[in-house]
Design goal:
four-stranded antiparallel beta sheet, 8 helices, homotetramer, Alpha-Beta Plaits, alpha/beta, seven-stranded mixed beta sheet, globular, 2 domains, 30% strand
Chain lengths: 285, 285, 285, 285
Amino acid sequence: MNDKVEELWCVRMTCDDQTGVVAEFTSALARDGWNILDAQQHTDQSSGRFFMRLEVHHASTGERALEETLLPAARRVNAEVEWFAQSRKPRVAILASKTTHCVVDLLERWRTGELPCEVVCIVANHEHIGVHASWYDVPFHHVPFHPSNSEAFAAIEGMLSQHRVDLTVLARFMQIMPAELVAQHEDRMLNIHHSFLPSFAGAKPYQQAHQKGVKLVGATCHYVTAELDQGPILEQEVVRVSHRDGPEELRRKGRVCEREALARGVKLHLEGRVFVHGQKTVVFP
Amino acid sequence: MNDKVEELWCVRMTCDDQTGVVAEFTSALARDGWNILDAQQHTDQSSGRFFMRLEVHHASTGERALEETLLPAARRVNAEVEWFAQSRKPRVAILASKTTHCVVDLLERWRTGELPCEVVCIVANHEHIGVHASWYDVPFHHVPFHPSNSEAFAAIEGMLSQHRVDLTVLARFMQIMPAELVAQHEDRMLNIHHSFLPSFAGAKPYQQAHQKGVKLVGATCHYVTAELDQGPILEQEVVRVSHRDGPEELRRKGRVCEREALARGVKLHLEGRVFVHGQKTVVFP
Amino acid sequence: MNDKVEELWCVRMTCDDQTGVVAEFTSALARDGWNILDAQQHTDQSSGRFFMRLEVHHASTGERALEETLLPAARRVNAEVEWFAQSRKPRVAILASKTTHCVVDLLERWRTGELPCEVVCIVANHEHIGVHASWYDVPFHHVPFHPSNSEAFAAIEGMLSQHRVDLTVLARFMQIMPAELVAQHEDRMLNIHHSFLPSFAGAKPYQQAHQKGVKLVGATCHYVTAELDQGPILEQEVVRVSHRDGPEELRRKGRVCEREALARGVKLHLEGRVFVHGQKTVVFP
Amino acid sequence: MNDKVEELWCVRMTCDDQTGVVAEFTSALARDGWNILDAQQHTDQSSGRFFMRLEVHHASTGERALEETLLPAARRVNAEVEWFAQSRKPRVAILASKTTHCVVDLLERWRTGELPCEVVCIVANHEHIGVHASWYDVPFHHVPFHPSNSEAFAAIEGMLSQHRVDLTVLARFMQIMPAELVAQHEDRMLNIHHSFLPSFAGAKPYQQAHQKGVKLVGATCHYVTAELDQGPILEQEVVRVSHRDGPEELRRKGRVCEREALARGVKLHLEGRVFVHGQKTVVFP
């Protein structure tokens, strides 16, 4: 229990839409002396599902009191509710392969305080990523994928478990995750795909984009699901290209989109701003 | 009083920040059977001012009931509150000079239902705008600025008053508004300036931009205040340019920004999404 | 023959890449007294094809002289060459269905001199577009698609031929063009598709985009080929959207991309800046 | 002299506009067996100055031959001409203060081959930048600005000279350069300013932007001149912000623009794509 005074709390809630939901929570909070600093809500019209994110603060009490305020309110409207202190640091693992631009960007943003998390390990199937891990003083694990994929994934599973990882970030990790591992990390595993999905899913998207002759290339940050490159989209970014740009130039220009969409996606997730709702996401800015 | 059932209502509220404000309003609404469809709020940290916009709906009652719900709540937290039916149509006047791109864009968006308003008149100091007014079946008033500016502004003032105008849109109207007229229409008069303010305020911004050699040009939609091009900014847009673009090309590329920033600004204002707060705005998307 | 002095000429040339091509043309032009005001070139590395666009001017002569300069040079390097006076006005037909935003935007840009062409007719399968045609004083033809598509397309074919159309612009024309008609207008028929292709080809792209939950929607201007929505892409545009945007909001936000991508595409084509090269385009800005 | 066969060469040329300039150079190149792979040119209408950048290649010869081809042509049209092998590595110094995002981005892009240069030293008035220098194995010099600015600048001048620096990059270096040092490095010293210039020149631009309430913030890469933040602009970038963003959030969002505009500017300069022309730049993409 975190009963630190001066803590800010993030409250996330979802339930079926009904009259009085907002009042139920905000009244309970007000009655018990909690100040609401920020509130965002959304009702999905097609499913009738309601989502709310609050930032609250109390002058003299902490988590135990918050729980006592929220749980009865949640019961009354049959809501799922969760909360966390804004000072908490979720434990993040980064998985990488060869390219370093996303890894370095995440590490640098983390180091400068932009990403509210603890990077607890970097796992890669290429050894040279170890240098960057050592720069930022993060434990590094090299997991070779030859001769055996299944052994490699067993090792990764072990490490995510051993490091008690809250969020796994595939920072241009070029191996297809096995379904069981994905299932274990449902809504807690983010990938960056190097195209503006749903265009150019699968292998070599910049090659595909070059062949098609598109005038913008992009990148997509999405939750990992069993189906490759089909998980709920969290963030996307694009950049203008031209006939002058060969596949190598597309790759270079796209890198900027990749690291940007991934970093923004990771930050949104860490701050509790994303609700996965079926195949889609609700993202409170 | 609009007591139409099935009406959606927009509620706008502002007060000093304090614990329990959101609860005060949402509880009163819930108690009286109002469903909250959308809620956005913001606290300005430096001034301690709180802003909230709600969209609410009641299955069986209307404005009189809403007023009875809101006013006591507002009194308790010393808030300013206002509300309007989303089906209302504010009365809009468009003021123009020579160029037509903003006028045509506003009229076309209005005709296709994108702008929730009534365009009640177009006033211009060039006669040829009358053609567009007739196309869209809007009363047109030609007000020549020669020989006398003061007579022209008196005529404009008369027309805005006679047409009971709620919002005046300066759609590239190239005359400087007198202070008294501005004061009468405080927070209800929008201008589009053809630069990314605060850069290039005043005359000939594209010429200024060309001389400076900027790599992006833009446009700014702002409320009109007594000081030229200095009012609270509502919306801005930019577009990339290059050394190939002379002043005429900047003007052409900028036109797209102008009409876009102006149309978005007008729509945001009409939907009650903008709060003017000192020299700045709070804009709920 | 246009032998007007003070005319500017656009020269377009393509051939297999080889040493001396640029020199061949620029020397011939210099020798004969032509000044080069602008030059852009591109070599497609995979095909070895070379493309060049020049803007040239002569103080005292015109088209006949230009031809005499260019043809021998073209013969020597086995190039295809064409040229046109920048004052020429290609004859453009606009095909439309129900929505008017692209039609109005094209007409307004044309009226204000932004599009160097003559709009010679508007053809639509909905009668109400006729109003806009009359505003801009353009002949209008209503072609009903019931009961018979083939009769309708025969009528359209007749009209494009009768009006001696150089470029046909499908401004949200919602009928699939028959292959023969497409073949007759190869590289001279532009379409705007209301998605960021190759995502969401075919029917109801905004509905598809909403279901997928993408965070950006877009529009694509492409040449029409026999395969639906698969022709060479000329221009694309995107805009940011969020979970708040239902299909209707995506449609509204997307409209701005559509008219922008289409108008830019039409302008690029009219100014001779586009070379179709297989499934792709070379676009000189 | 670099007489390596298979080298690509970049040729930069500027002269007063006149008939036959392009032919003069391209003919000489063709006659001597040089193939032109890329060509871009621009005539500044107001000054009548002509600029051209070529990429050329010869199957069997090198720099001495290129010089013999270019110099006579340049003499005939009174042009300034320069050339460099695309494999050359200009010597770059990075100057920094406290913030690391631009430094890390430049170093990482350099390490991955995106920036064609040699980073020969990093100079900073804060010691902690030394860590990053050591990561990327670049000599680091700590130059304290207390008690004496003039000694510090004397030290910097010495280092730039000792390292024979071709380009100096101020990567958020927060000290005002003395005029003599600027003069020594005319057109060879790049700065990133953390605003969309000419808005918010000088100190604390994010604070200024927050006070003004702009809806976009940006960054500007420009050549350093004697007048603070007024040098020729090379590249700019902006990002959308809202009333939710306090000065700290503007700073965070703006950082992405800063590193992007700076990296693009440095790359454009290194590739010889920029001509400074009075207060402005010509940039060939």
